[in-house]
Amino acid sequence: MPTISAFYGIVIKMFFNDHAPPHFHAEYAEFQATVDIKNLQVLEGQLPRRALDLVLDWAELHRGELLSDWDLCREKQAPKPIAPLV
To answer: What does pTM read for this prediction?
Structure first.
């Protein structure tokens, strides 16, 4: 599972050829959440409130890039790195 971004101890990843809907995986310490790219809703798992807020802020800024990376992963191509939240 390629890492596409990392910031403040949060790691953002996508699986190759993953199931719909378009989503990414966010990991923070022992926590993990799957986040829908289109509506920025947690599909599965959980993150601490502060980490989740950071992930959602980042995803809102980079939604287009996330969707492009989703398409690449669906085609079993390496996704492009996405700038971290600063």
So the answer is: 0.93
